[in-house]
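Put briefly, the fold is written as integer tokens. The lines below illustrate.
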Amino acid sequence: MTVTALNSMERIGQDQKPFGAASVEIGCARNEVESFQVVVAAPAENITVTKVEISDLAGLNGSRIGKDNVTFFREEYVRVRISTPRAELPPGLYPDPLVRSSIP
């Protein structure tokens, strides 16, 4: 099993090898919202994520964002059955909608 972090603009397909980093850096101003992704992959086996934990987020200058201000979403896949003639991607499953996670 591998766990990696990605910025919010990256996409990983179900058949792609996971990529990313061991940590993530984000930046935003007061009252802004920023996102990032955590990828959990186990290509050789089926797994079920049953629990997710996070600590407070800490800034380099000592600032903190409490873990109660973090919301988890899980990614779902959309099946594209027919691509348009000018589409670069073939039909298949593509990561897109984010659904609020019910995992505590």
